[in-house]
Amino acid sequence: MQLRIITDQPWQVAADVLALPIVGEPAFNGALAELDRRSGGELAAMAAFGELTGKRYHAALAASGDLPAGRLLAVGAGPGDTINRETIHRLGATIERRLGGRAVHSLAIWLGDLGTYVDGGDAIAAELLVRGVVEGSYEPKAIYLATVESAPPILDELILVAPGADTAALTRAANRGRIMGEGANVARTLANRASNDVSPIVLADAAREIAARNGLSIDVIEPEQAAELGMGMFLAVGRGSDNPPRMIVLRSGEAGQLDALGRHLAIVGKGVCFDSGGISIKPADRMEEMKMDKTGAATVIAAIETVARLAPGTPLLAIAPAVENMPGPHSTRPGDIVRALNGKQVDITNTDAEGRLILGDALTYAEQLGATHLVDVATLTGAVSRALGHLVTGAFGTPQAWYDAVIAAGDQAGERYWQVPLIDDYVVEMDSWYGDLQNSSSAEGSLVKSGLFLREFRTKPWVHLDIGGTGYFRKASPFAARGANGVTHATLVELALAGAR
Hints:
Layout: E1 2-6, E2 17-23, H1 30-38, H2 42-49, E3 59-63, E4 71-78, H3 85-98, E5 106-110, H4 121-136, E6 157-161, H5 167-192, H6 200-214, E7 217-221, H7 223-229, H8 232-238, E8 246-252, E9 265-269, E10 271-275, H9 295-310, E11 316-325, E12 336-339, E13 345-348, H10 355-368, E14 373-378, H11 383-388, E15 393-398, H12 400-413, E16 417-419, E17 437-438, H13 446-455, E18 462-466, E19 472-473, E20 483-484, H14 489-497
Parallel strand pairs: 1-6, 2-4, 2-5, 5-6, 9-11, 9-14, 10-11, 13-17, 14-18, 15-16
Antiparallel strand pairs: 3-4, 7-8, 8-11, 12-13, 15-18, 19-20
Helix pairs in contact: 3-4, 4-5, 5-9, 6-9, 8-10, 9-14, 10-13, 12-14
């Protein structure tokens, strides 16, 4: 897709479709009035009919009259005082998805005054819109189907219309947005692929391909080496499957190298390629969704590629412990005691609380490899969805300054988080009869306890992002298809790039 910046007025732009963000209820003055006049009054007529509104993400196609664009697409951005980075990102995705099934090769988007609502002005608006369009073009059915009739169009050209703007600055921003969007889509495809298609070995092979094309180093730890290293929690989860586990380690930059902020950042992602619950087996209802339990791993693998594309050589570790959690003759049993990589003896009381086991060893290993700051991403709990729904990611962290730095990156990315407290009074409820702690206890406070468990396996600044509610959508929205949505990818990339030299 070619990206082009045009500083002419929107009524001068030729494209198959010209998209018009509508802030608030339509007011036909200024540029919008001129567009309406040249469309033969079509926009005003549609507004009077109730087809064109300022309701957020409501989209309406209109005839273009004498305009050089083939069609007009008016998309509501909502009230101006509520527009933020997330809004503009999702506006771009909504524009692209509304054109699904249409023969569109060139799309122009008028920035209007969107840039006035976010720090960074037109450049940030351009980046977010392009990122949204790229992510909006994603069609998960295309993974396995040769033809999808309703798929968003494959664009030859995307044009941003910004009268009087700095063309060079907008071009740089637009290209950054495209790379960010492409990275999110890589994560989505890895997460969406079926479990009979992506085993831990296949996920490791995909990581090798990403490493090869981006100049990254990679180490894939197999079970024998993991046992020698002492990764007892990691190995305990994968014992029941015929598909052996893999600890995937990707690196940008040199071992131990610090970034411009004095960090050796590690991003760690849960990679359960299928989660049956093991001996503590899950209910059958929606178990098919458990292929999504590798979404955290998919996200960190994609994020280190995106960072490598935007700022090659930036010091960064990405670790993806990949397993299948299956019942079988060799499965870990409730009541088994395993020794973690950091030496703690862990009482596994529930084999369906497996994500925290593999993440615990991965966090310890990241520190052994020199990490000074840690972030992990995981579809860890159902409790976070019950607490926060499917649009807000739960987040834990210590110390507070590191948590704040991660969330600042999330604000820049246009992603929403809510801090969950780490309440020390709950630790006693995780006591084990035989070990140092158990991996699961009473349901009360289970979300907090999941974070407390992970906290036992790090000594450096750490943040945990629980995407159990936000990692994938169960139904389509105006801005996204069903399935994995790439959440936290942009946050991780912004966090790493803050330390780029």
